[in-house]
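User: Run a structure prediction on this.
Assistant: Running it now.
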Amino acid sequence: MYLYCEPIDFRKSHRGLSTLIEAELGHNPFSGELYAFTNKQRNKIKCVFWKNNGFVLYYYRGVGSFNLKLEEVATTEELVGKANILASGDNAKGFISKGTFATYKVHAKGNTAYKLTNLKQNGKHEINYAFYSPNDSEKLSAENRIRVNKNSVFGFGTTVAGEHTLYIYGNRGVGSFNLKLEEVNN
């Protein structure tokens, strides 16, 4: 569920709200996610989502006004993963949303090849990853898009010894990720 914090013109229909979802939030209004909107007086709520082959629009009009408070749904450690150092056989896990990223340090011995396996998760969100040399001076992998609801394997490597960085970027939607890093033996 997404809450649009700015008040909107309540004359908007499902067409106007879906346009706002796409233009302002950069989300796909046909994803099935629920989006909630409120008016300036904070006494009305409209919710819209796509179901099967059409939009569903809920409208609530309250007496008086209500106060919206945003709660933290995950700690910073949960958003970026609890341990940020990866060795061969370790998993990079956490929660991520579009526009956020997680950082993991990988201590490479040099002349090392790695395999990064996406362990299938529920959801339709997408992530990207990139692997950088020490001091982020050189990108050592292409920025690959991962659909978390599919098992997939990616490879990359380095000839340099030292502390490398693996970045996981939220590309679309919100949800968890679970990637296993393994050193590839010759």
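The longest strand covers residues 161-172.
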